[in-house]
């Protein structure tokens, strides 16, 4: 998606392209954010995650992605061990 947006379309055409392939703009934005933030990391760590969890991990500061964090229940977990609900509780990291 990012390649298409930046290389294959004229300015302002990305939205029309997304409509033609039936992808919502917010979903496309999440995929691009995930690609931008996680492309250098070991993506095999995240293969079992859905879009929302990946997006929450991608929006964490890079230095916070591997560190243990305390969940609301008091457990220590790294982001790749957390549920979407637990990740949402740590969006302010």
Automatic annotation (TrEMBL):
- Residues annotated as region Disordered? 62-93
Q: What is this protein called?
A: DUF3102 domain-containing protein
